[in-house]
């Protein structure tokens, strides 16, 4: 791509940056003194995003900067700058996400899919970074993103909740504290449980066993029971909800049970009878009232979680999100946040085109 065309694309992209992004480069110490080729926030940001988007090496990015007339810098200078720019890129990402949330339409319930994906350094066999995201449907736009180290666990408590939000999460989010956080802020949850992770009770305070509920169902049937958690929203007010249970069709149930057997054996253990039997059922817990989310709608809504997996796959394939350049935590964080900013700006450009050329025009 010719450099003049690159400049045109940059000016188009620049329009979507949040107000105050240049001053924040100094506030966040990405630029400490007004001296040198990379003391200009615009040149520095173009270099950082160009490296993140292209997956280019330090040497290649420094060479591009010289040829494009951005800056006469060495690969060492780029490396040193990268180590100081993480907070700045995080600020830009937060502002972009805040603008997205502010533009969302109000409704009775706004659907939010939450999940996390792991990233490893070169040569690492474990998790070094974890990206926690909140994806709004139906647009599949990121409404929240947070980058943590490997110790940053998955929880609803990481997200800001607005009244009317319906947060959908997998088993990792099915914790009492996380659910209570959502309810206290006026939202609802829809989470999967494995049958024992949530301490469920009936109105009399007696334990509710999801497996016993499932055993009463024929293959393919679904039901729900009113339950409450072993916690209170306020003194004397228990946190109530609904346990939705679906028995898988016979063939699907057999496949699910076989997956449990294989996963346990692969891990060096042996599955218990209860774990194998639990595989025949899907257990969901929701705080949404039945008039807003029926049992059938609850299972249909949970199946939409594939949308967030698609968002992750898009980010990892298009942005090469999982490919860290080196083992240093500072540059790794800047690298990942740069890719996140690129993804959010790309999100804006796609939305801009959709607004300009609505789907119904294409069908006309």
Structure description:
By secondary structure, the chain is of the alpha+beta class. It has a domain of 129 residues. Helices cover 44% and strands 19% of the residues. The protein has 14 helices and 9 strands. It has a 9-stranded mixed β-sheet with strand order 3-2-1-4-5-9-8-7-6, sandwiched between helices. Strand 7 and strand 8 form a beta hairpin. It is elongated, with a radius of gyration of 24 Å.
Task: Compute the number of helices.
Answer: 14
Order of H and E elements: HHHHHHEEEEHEEHEEHHEHHHH
* Low confidence ranges: 356-364
Shape: elongated
Strand ordering within the main sheet:
3-2-1-4-5-9-8-7-6
What's the alpha carbon Rg, rounded to whole Å? 24 Å
- What share of the residues does DSSP label as strand, in percent? 15-25%
What percentage of residues falls in helices of 4 or more residues?
40-55%
Q: Separation of termini?
A: 34 Å
Number of strands: 9
Class from secondary-structure proportions? alpha+beta
Compose a concise summary of this entry.
The protein has about 375 residues and is of the alpha+beta class.
Question: How do the strands and helices of this protein lay out in sequence?
Answer:
Elements: H1 3-14, H2 21-27, H3 41-54, H4 58-68, H5 75-82, H6 86-102, E1 110-119, E2 129-136, E3 141-149, E4 165-169, H7 176-184, E5 188-193, E6 200-201, H8 210-215, E7 222-234, E8 237-247, H9 250-266, H10 273-278, E9 281-286, H11 295-302, H12 306-318, H13 329-356, H14 359-363
Parallel strand pairs: 1-4, 4-5
Antiparallel strand pairs: 1-2, 2-3, 5-9, 6-7, 7-8, 8-9
